[in-house]
Write a structure and sequence with these properties.
Blueprint lengths: L4 E3 L2 E6 L4 E8 L6 E4 L1 E6 L6 E6 L10 E6 L2 E6 L5 E13 L2 E10 L8 E3 L1 H4 L3 E3 L30 E5 L5 H12 L3 E5 L4 E4 L6 E4 L2 E2 L5 E4 L6 H14 L2 E2 L3 H8 L1 H10 L7 E2 L7 H8 L4 E5 L8 E4 L2 H13 L4 E5 L7 E8 L2 E9 L14 E4 L4 H13 L4 E9 L2 E8 L5 H7 L3 H13 L7 E3 L6 E3 L2
Parallel strand pairs: 1-12, 3-11, 4-10, 13-14, 13-18, 18-19
Antiparallel strand pairs: 2-3, 4-11, 5-6, 6-7, 8-9, 9-10, 15-16, 16-17, 20-23, 21-22, 21-23, 24-25, 24-27, 25-26, 27-28, 29-30
Helix pairs in contact: 2-10, 3-4
Length: 471
């Protein structure tokens, strides 16, 4: 820097890398290292590149306003305070902005809640940039704590590293891609086997444990719950929800989407078009059940069916009766649906993220198979969808309150009809067919959802830092 800057004994500064657009700093040339008030300090990430996450209360007297931050660990060193006490502190690096100037500084993390200044500027941060006017304050432009009551703070921490858990029992393409993209974004992503989680359920301190240890605090959880463990998997997700962790898909949405009967009832309630569907428990109702749906051919589908298993096409009335009798003999729950002939063994998978269709593909069944599932030998290719199809997919995902969903549509003569809403859609088929980075979009959505939420309804007097209420 070419020109010296005048600093008083207290100045307003910003730490944009940490999402702190305004904070008062006490200038202390007697201290070598700068310090930032922080609590809930927790390390995470690999040993080769450790990170630290912490919470800052930038405004004295405002314990309700908390900004979560994270940064790479630069060092860990012993710092001796003015009263002679030594403390081991994590050291991080951040850009400091004062007026129109900015430069990198190092900060130690420590609890300064008992002090008026949330930040201390030591001589290392000043270097040759500053001339000190020890009898004055605010030689540089003043900032305002009011920035914390506006939406600007929501976008103030784009580089904050997150700790994300993927609940998955399989080392498959989808899990690997989520880990890969999360790490590309600078986050730490850990794969957790859902069935190895167990829960401490109580009112004051609910916890999730794993392999004998309490799991750390996560910013977000991505559920990849297999159909065979839906009940236990959703219980684990409910526990994370109780703790306050953002779950990409909630337990209620996953449970509803897995119960095909409940799923069709939810879609009917939200007036989402689907093939005519009927359900009955008594074997005496077989003929009536078939008449409710229409004439053969009919689809008979187990309620627990996944990936096309347990789905049978009955081409004649007699064949439908035989299939229904067989399922009833196994005491299996099933639906009967109208067969949409014009779909010709094809369906459309719309991938919805955050209320938007981000990709879509057309799936075609293997020769001689009416089912289009890729797991059964079907093929897929990218496809352009209509406005009506897009709106239908979005409405279906919203009906189940899912942030991520694979919505399967049939193109019928009367318009798109929803076959299924999948709460754990695979990424491999859609990424390969569309050549889109769906895993990256999911990480982007998580970043948007877990950034700090601004605290509204209070302002702070800029001069002395004392909080005042505003209406």
């Amino acid at each position: 820097m070419q020109n010296l800057m005048r600093f008083g004994w207290e100045e307003w500064v910003a730490l944009p890398d940490l999402g702190l657009p305004a904070i008062k700093a006490k200038v202390d040339t007697g201290a070598r290292t700068s310090a930032l008030h922080a609590f809930d300090i927790e390390t995470f990430g690999p040993a080769s590149a450790p990170k630290v996450r912490f919470t800052v209360q930038p405004v004295p007297g405002r314990e309700d306003l908390m900004i979560p931050c994270s940064a790479k660990i630069v060092d860990r060193r012993s710092v001796t305070s003015s009263n002679g006490e030594s403390e081991m502190r994590y050291v991080i690096a951040s850009k400091m902005q004062v007026g129109d100037e900015s430069w990198p500084i190092e900060l130690t993390l420590t609890d300064r809640s008992g002090m008026h200044s949330r930040m201390l500027l030591g001589r290392e941060a000043l270097k040759d940039h500053i001339t000190i006017v020890a009898t004055e304050r605010y030689q540089q432009p003043k900032l305002s704590y009011d920035v914390y009551t506006t939406a600007r703070v929501r976008h103030a921490a784009p580089n904050r590293a997150l700790r994300i858990a993927v609940l998955s029992r399989e080392d498959n393409y989808s899990t690997r891609r989520l880990v890969e993209e999360g790490e590309k974004h600078g986050h730490t992503v850990e794969v957790i086997d859902t069935t190895r989680c167990y829960m401490a359920i109580n009112a004051m301190s609910p916890e999730v444990h794993y392999d004998g240890k309490r799991l750390p605090r996560y910013d977000a959880v991505i559920p990849r719950i297999g159909a065979s463990i839906t009940s236990y998997g959703t219980a684990v997700i409910r526990q994370f929800e109780t703790i306050g962790v953002f779950c990409l898909n909630g337990s209620d949405g996953i449970t509803a989407s897995r119960d095909k009967l409940a799923a069709h009832q939810i879609m009917a309630r939200h007036k989402i078009r689907m093939p005519n569907t009927a359900f009955a428990a008594s074997p005496k109702d077989t003929d009536s059940l078939m008449r409710l749906v229409g004439t053969a051919p009919l689809i008979v589908k187990l309620l627990e069916s996944t990936q096309g298993k347990g789905v049978v096409l009955a081409e004649t009335k007699k064949a439908a009766q035989s299939v229904i009798d067989a399922f009833r003999g196994l005491k299996a729950n099933f639906l009967v649906q109208d067969f949409v002939k014009e779909a010709a063994g094809e369906d459309i998978r719309c991938f919805v993220v955050g209320g938007k269709v981000v990709a879509s593909m057309k799936r075609t069944g293997a020769e001689g198979d009416f089912r289009s599932n890729l797991h059964r030998g079907g093929s897929a290719q990218s496809v352009r969808i209509s406005k009506e199809e897009r709106e239908t997919a979005v409405r279906a995902a919203k009906a189940f309150k899912l942030n991520m969903a694979g919505v399967d549509l049939l193109r019928s003569e009367s318009g798109p009809k929803v076959l299924e809403v999948n709460s754990s859609p695979g990424l491999e088929g859609i990424e390969i067919a569309t050549k889109k980075n769906i895993a990256g979009m999911l990480i982007d959505h998580i970043e948007d959802r877990v950034r700090p939420t601004p605290i509204r309804g209070r302002t702070v007097d800029d001069d002395d830092g004392s909080p005042t209420l505003s209406k």
